[in-house]
Amino acid sequence: MADPEKAFLVFENHVKVECLFNPETITISRDNRWNTKAGGPGRGVGRLKYEGAENGSLDLELWFDTTDTGAPVTYKTKKLLQAMEVDKDLPGTNKRASNARPPWVEFHWGKDLVSWKAVITHVSVQFTYFSSKGTPLRAKVNLTLKQFEEGNAFGAQNPTSGTPRPHRVHRVQPGETLDRISARYYGDSTRWRQLAVANRVEDPLTIRPGSLLSVPELEGP
Q: Which run of H or E residues covers position 52?
């Protein structure tokens, strides 16, 4: 059986950081701005007025481990820290305009999970294991990405006619089958066909551990 596909980050300046362990959770946040004038004496609540959309954010918890090779795990983590530095070689940089900036980045996991272009607004690195010589071998990284420009995060594909709207994502664990996943989310193992249709699974017995499945909302009996 093939190994689970690894997630990775790819930067505007062509730097690629592969995740040694795939994230357990991915959190996407979006906010819209709504405002109203104060009601004033003798008035009730005013009607809200839409004032635009805020850029989305993406929170990831990534693990890096090099205990098998003994190489410093900082080889991976320093790439994320360096991505917060200004890169004057990026296209469009103009010294007179003082518009130099850090590179944008995209998060990829398989063919279906691709984020919008984003910039790193926060990164924290916690080294959790060291060799006897003090070499850091394991690290946990908390990463916050902010949407760089207009685009879709994990939803750029056109919906297929008749396919239920995806509601959440499930990562397949070893030994799991579609009927078990159906029982977990729907309380009914016989609804596995909706999972198969939504994810274009031809053989429900060959779903790969580590792969991601869209779990659609139920439609109809």
A: strand 49-53
